[in-house]
Design goal:
By secondary structure, the protein is of the alpha/beta class. It folds into two domains: about 180 residues, Rossmann fold (3-Layer(aba) Sandwich), CATH 3.40.50.150; about 55 residues, rRNA adenine dimethylase, C-terminal domain (Helicase, Ruva Protein, domain 3). Helix content is about 35%, strand content about 20%. The chain is built from ten helices and nine strands. The strands form two sheets. A seven-stranded mixed sheet has the order 4-3-2-5-6-9-7. It has a two-stranded antiparallel sheet with strand order 1-8. Helix 7 packs across helix 10. The relative contact order is 0.13.
């Protein structure tokens, strides 16, 4: 199959190493039957996904050239190939149960992809994604780390996250200027929260937007209700569970 040059404005770097492609697909568990591939491009992951007979493969792709390529070379998924922007894609119109997500995520929208995944955490059981190495480190980092941030907390509320392996730049067309990494997110057993979810998001974002400040200062609008155990701490010192406790205290006040 002939490679097609990616559109520069998509932030996409096409994987050419078949061993890495297979390794990424092999990282996907068997938690669901339906799997949605994000930005299949020239189908380097698609071919290995289709080898797994237990999976029903769907794909969402915004680039017209890539859509035509997938339709021509992988006609078996043509009815489940959605020529749409992933960030505007309506999951619930296409999936009636839980599903998984896999892909070489476009670097320029990877954070937005993960925020959307968080919004649909009750429907997405697993995610295997290749992203910029720094993004992978941030999402999988634990509290107390300098890379720990908003996405780290929110995703860890509902997912167990593993940094699987690093991918060098030379396995891509064109080679990115940064290293990449593959992470796996598996839905945890936590189904509900004892606090308001929107308030949790607000608390986490507000705290990290002033990450050098102690919580009693960055969250001063809730000062009277912040538990003493958290008041003198900075945002990166709290785990996802701590943020749930903090928001629960604020909610019940």
């Amino acid at each position: 199959m002939d490679a097609v040059k990616p559109k520069k404005n998509l932030g996409q770097h096409f994987l050419k190493d078949q061993n890495i492609a297979r390794k990424i697909v092999d990282s996907l568990g068997t938690n669901t039957v339906d799997v949605l591939e994000v930005g299949p491009g020239m189908g380097v992951l698609t071919r290995y996904l289709l080898e797994r007979n237990e999976l029903t493969v769907h794909a969402v792709e915004i680039d017209n050239e890539s859509v035509e390529f997938i339709q021509k070379n992988y006609p078996e998924i043509s009815e489940r190939l959605y020529a749409e922007n992933f960030l505007k894609f309506d999951f619930l119109s296409h999936f009636y149960g839980n599903f998984s997500i896999i892909g070489n995520f476009p670097y320029n929208i990877s954070s937005q992809i993960f925020f959307k995944i968080f919004d649909y955490h009750n429907h997405i059981s697993e995610v295997v994604g290749m992203v910029q190495k720094e993004v992978a480190e941030r999402i999988s980092s634990v509290h107390g780390s300098k890379t720990y941030g908003i996405l780290s907390v929110l995703l860890q509320v509902f997912y167990n996250i593993e940094y699987l392996f690093t991918v060098s730049a030379h396995v891509f067309i064109p080679p990115p200027k940064v290293k990449s990494a593959v992470i796996r997110m598996t839905r945890s057993k936590r189904q509900t929260l004892p606090c308001d979810e929107k308030l949790l998001v607000y608390v986490v974002k507000t705290a990290f937007n002033q990450r050098r400040k102690m919580l009693r200062n960055s969250l001063k609008e809730f000062n009277e209700n912040i538990p003493q155990q958290f008041a003198e701490k900075r945002p990166e010192q709290l785990s996802a569970d701590d943020y749930i406790l903090l928001t629960t205290a604020i909610t019940k006040s």
